Task: inverse folding
């Protein structure tokens, strides 16, 4: 009777362990050699989740693509503003350069007229005093023309500055595919082992 009860208890423990999902080890030997059977429980092995090494890289790539699209929209808007500013700069710069050319041509004409007058005066001069007076008149005319030129350049103001072109955004590069067999593996956790009681 005792033997049947012992077997029934062992079967109950074993079926309960199987239902709960744990492995049960029992040593059923003669009661004279091992006074009582010892059941040891070990935790089931937890399978490490599969790691896709490409997923993180692709997620980062998609985020970079979204940022690139936003940057591209900003670039298009800035490019439109730049084109308008560049056209305004070209018009203003052409007017500035034309005015500066007129100032330069006016100065050259004044110097040429002073040199022509000096040459005529020296040709008509009979004394050294007449030649000195012609030279002084030439110097005064050139100095006056230089003063007028400098005043006109000052009144013209600073040359217009060229607008800075916006920088075109660089598209992200697609990551290279990593084969899952070469992916880093998660180390399995050690499971405790049970030893029978003596």
Result:
């Amino acid at each position: 009777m005792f033997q049947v009860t012992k077997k029934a208890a062992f079967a109950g423990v074993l079926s309960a362990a199987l239902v709960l999902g744990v492995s049960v080890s029992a040593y059923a030997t003669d009661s004279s050699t091992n006074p009582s059977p010892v059941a040891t429980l070990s935790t089931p092995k937890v399978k490490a989740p599969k790691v896709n090494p490409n997923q993180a890289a692709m997620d980062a790539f998609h985020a970079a693509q979204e940022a690139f699209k936003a940057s591209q929209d900003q670039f298009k808007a800035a490019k439109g503003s730049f084109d308008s500013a560049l056209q305004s700069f070209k018009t203003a710069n052409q007017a500035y350069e034309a005015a500066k050319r007129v100032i330069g041509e006016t100065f050259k004409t004044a110097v040429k007229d002073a040199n022509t007058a000096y040459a005529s005066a020296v040709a008509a001069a009979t004394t050294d005093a007449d030649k000195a007076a012609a030279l002084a008149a030439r110097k005064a005319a050139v100095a006056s023309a230089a003063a007028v030129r400098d005043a006109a350049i000052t009144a013209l103001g600073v040359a217009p500055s060229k607008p800075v072109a916006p920088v075109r955004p660089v598209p992200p590069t697609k990551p290279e595919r990593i084969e899952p067999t070469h992916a880093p593996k998660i180390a399995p956790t050690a499971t405790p082992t049970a030893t029978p009681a003596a």
